[in-house]
Amino acid sequence: MTLDRREFLRRSGQTALAMGSLGLWAAPERSAAEDAAPAPAMPIIDTHQHLWDLDKFHLPWLKSAGPLDRSFVTKDYLEATGGLNVVKAVYMEVALATNEQLAEAQYVIDLCRRGDSPTVAGVIAGQLGTPGFAAYIRRFEGSPYIKGVRQSIPAARVEQGLVKDGDFLRDLRLLGELGMSFDLCTAPELLPAGEKLVAQCPDTRFIVDHCGNADPRAFRPGEEKPSHDPDQWRRDMGSLAGRKNTVCKISGIISRIDPKQWSPEELAPVVNHCLEVFGPDRVMFAGDWPVCTRGASLREWVGALKQIVADRPDEQRRKLFHDNAFRVYGLG
Fold first, then answer.
1. Using CA atoms, how far apart are residues 25 and 20, in angstroms rounded to an integer?
2. Which tens digit of pLDDT belongs to each residue from 43-102?
3. Which of 129, 156, 184, 321 has the fewest CB atoms in 10 Å of its CB?
4. Cβ-based neighbours of 210, under 8 Å, separated by 6 or more
5. Residue 30 falls within a domain, yes or no?
6. Interatomic CA distance for residues 332 and 320, integer angstroms
7. Inside any domain, residue 6
8. Which residues form the domain of 67?
9. What are the CA-CA distances from residue 268 to residues 15, 30, 254, 260, 305 (Å)?
10. In CATH, what number is assigned to the domain containing residue 104?
């Protein structure tokens, strides 16, 4: 059974009331003042925030992105997160042309320094394996704002032996030396190649983006033509999780669902497998806003994930939504 989004939110509230009436949880005694004010929501650190200002940067890929083909700036993000208690956010690079990547990094640093938004750190773009990468990334050594690098890598290059590219591996290791991470964002069928990269760079932290880019539709019972093999994805994510220098972002899957008809249950198999294989200390919530709006609003994504993990211990939920990101990215 699937629920439309309005019905999902209504039933979520009813479930909480029903749990109380059945004695499944008991609230401690509260003062009159406490009763008058709702309990604050669990603090959230969003580890994957996209922003783009088309007056400053050119994003060619937006031409085919439909409703995303406009500026999304801090004001829009604050509106999207209103009431969610997002206390910090980590900016994620937005696939600009190579000649704009340094300007993007400076834009992120300025945004963090201003202190007038949740954005406190960033993962920037870079061209690992090229002669100028070392000089480029070393300029950010010791920066409290630049935490890592993500690089879009064509599938063909991965298949042609990226894992044997000495220059690329050298730069991955350099990130570890500088205390920075590398975001691994690749198709499910290329996860084994990603695991080989991770294995060769044990001192660099790898962030596995978007649950390994799993498609939740592939996990539907009886799905005739899944976009990838769900069992192979499970095995490959288990192998990645076996490398202790990996962390998994719980994100991305919401942008692949049918925005007109979906339920948290459709997302649960992917989420729960990631939580199980990576464990409670190596998973982080990520919004992927505004890309997530291809499937649902950021508010709906947060609500769905909270419902999926509702039965897990409070300590684990707090690690997922806040504490792990604070530690991994050193946001103190």
1. 6
2. 999 999 999 999 999 998 998 889 999 999 999 999 999 999 999 999 999 999 999 999
3. 156
4. 185, 249, 251, 252, 253, 286, 288
5. no
6. 17
7. no
8. 41-328
9. 17, 34, 11, 18, 8
10. 3.20.20.140
* Residue 48, H or E segment: strand 44-49
Residue 12 lies in a domain: no
Question: Phi first, then psi: what are they for 141, rounded to 5°?
Answer: -60, 130
Report the distance separating Cα 20 and Cα 62, nearest Å. Answer: 47
Count of CB atoms situated within 10 Å of the CB of 127: 16
The neighbouring-strand residues paired with 119 are 89
Rounded Cα distance, 22 and 79, in Å? 36
Q: Where are the beta strands (DSSP E) in 94-226?
A: 119-125, 146-150, 181-184, 205-208
User: For the segment 294-318, what is each residue's pLDDT rounded down to a tens digit?
Assistant: 999 999 999 999 999 999 999 999 9
- Take residue 272 and report the two structure tokens written for it: 């729960």
Assess whether the previous peptide bond of 202 is cis (omega < 30° from 0): no
Q: How far is CA 141 from CA 138, 179, 202, 210, 271, in A?
A: 5, 8, 20, 27, 34
The residues, ordered by sequence, that sit 6+ positions from 271 with a Cβ below 8 Å of its Cβ are 211, 250, 253, 305, 308, 309
Q: What is the SS3 assignment for 52?
A: strand
Residue 45 to residue 49: CA distance in whole angstroms: 10
Instruction: Tell me if 284 sits within 8 A of 276, measured CB to CB.
Output: no
Predicted TM-score (pTM) of this structure = 0.87
